[in-house]
Amino acid sequence: MADGAETGEWRHVAQAVPSPPDGSDAGEVIRWYQQHNCLTQQETADLLNTTQSWVSKVEKSKLVPGLAELRADYRAVLTAVNALGENQREHVERLRTLSQQQADTNTRVRTIDDRTRSIEESLAEVKDLLVRALDR
Hints:
Helix content is 73%, strand content 0%. It is mainly alpha-helical.
């Protein structure tokens, strides 16, 4: 009774299905799906609303220019964006520093203005004293 055939049961053992390619080569991906689904180039073309010739060219990597080039461009753009982000962070930090320096400078200017007023007031008092002394 351990055998499924004796009990009238049937069993299906699933076969391992290989995973599709990583997508770095469009032709490889199309070939994998064609083989996996038992499709011809024409059937694939019909499903993609294109021509058999186009599918053939993609499979031979003669049509899709460089996913490698596109990845390189993507990496270059990503590097540039990261550099701009870093540059932006540096500018923000510089602006904060400059803002703080400006605030410190404004405080110093106010202190100098206060001292100048104090000196001017003292000078005015001295002049008044001299005028009074001369008037006597």
